[in-house]
Amino acid sequence: MTQANDLHSFLSDRFPRQADAESDGTTVTWLAHQGVMSVRGADPRKFLQGQVTCDLDKVTADVSTLGARCNPKGRMQSSFRLLNSGEDEFLLCMNRELVSSQVSELSKYAVFFKTALTDATADWVGLGLWGPDAQEALRTANLAVPGRSNEVAHTGRTLVVRLAEDAFEIWLSAAEAQPTLDSLCQSATPAATEAWQVRQIRAGIGEVTQSTYESFIPQMLNLQQLGGVSFRKGCYTGQEIVARMQYLGKLKRRMYRLLLAGDAPPPPGTPIVDRDNGKLLGEVVVAARSNHIVEMLAVLQKDAAQLTTMSVADGGGPLLTMADLPYESELIASEADREN
After folding, report:
1. If pLDDT is split at 50, 70 and 90, which confidence band does 24 have?
2. CA-CA distance, 230 to 246, in Å (whole number)?
């Protein structure tokens, strides 16, 4: 059995597959749904600057960002967290299903920049860590603690990204992961990946999956509110459409948080309809279970977001309830400014 298989077996055994009841304690999850694309070469920064929505000039070894890669029509092919793991390498952490296709798509252009793209998923282990003692868990594992949101702390090949006061995303080199994994699993309660997805949903962070490939422009996933879109850095693939929507267009659809009674999360891309008349209102971005309720992010028509008759799929299930996003007030204010 290879080292990679040994590690995957350990992770599968250590972390539950199904979410338990939520805990108020410190929790660690394996980000099994995430993959990693490595971009390495003579000038990967210049290459990526012309391909993604975020500003590479603001990404350093100590600062990360969210971002997206769009097609020429401004439709998102992937969403990711961008990390600088070293002077000549960037990591794009995205939905595992998309890594291979993004390597193929972007490699068409990388050759002109002497840059190589590879699927590095097997080289990294992603973890989510949050809770009141998350910082202490990091210190016990001999990992440095970054100071502010989106900042990155390096301990050898391990990267720790601070997302909030008590929440961190951790990327471990697979070859050196075992001791850190052992320590974190002793300091925090191991939980299913779905527990992390619930946390991301509550934070209003959506993601592109294979089912929603090229379905959304960045503003539909509120990516501009999360610092994942630069409107000043210059040209990149899809930039004209994205900028036009920001300054000249009127966004008709955007992402909202919804609650659904039950235990069956609808998969990404599932239609959302008006149960009274069957009219299509939007589609699911991501959904996960939490304490016998399903929480989700969905892109909806803005004029339909106040309806009380929304449901998923064929419209025969429970009605959906609107819930808050942490940046809702800022989002509404920015929309009002743009439309005026």
Report:
1. confident
2. 11
Q: Which residues, including other chains, have CB under 8 Å from residue 337's CB and lie 6 or more apart? A: none
Q: Which of 76, 52, 47 is nearest to 65 (CA)?
A: 52
Per the structure block, which two tokens stand in for 305? 């977001």
> Distance between CA 67 and CA 202 in Å, rounded?
19
251-340: CATH topology is: Elongation Factor Tu (Ef-tu); domain 3 (2.40.30)
Chain-centroid distance of CA 94 in Å reads: 7
Report the C-alpha gap between 102 and 318 in whole angstroms. 37
Per residue in 2-26, is it b (16+ CB within 10 Å) or e — as a string?
eeeeebbebbeeebbeebeeeeeeb
Helix (H, G, I), strand (E, B) or coil at 89: strand
User: What would be the CATH architecture of the domain defined by 3-202?
Assistant: 2-Layer Sandwich (3.30)
Ranges of each domain in the chain: 3-202, 251-340
Contact 90, 152 (CB under 8 A): no
| Token pair in block for residue 115 | 């840059």
- pLDDT tens digits, residue range 236-258? 999 999 999 988 878 999 999 99
Mean pLDDT within 229-236? 95
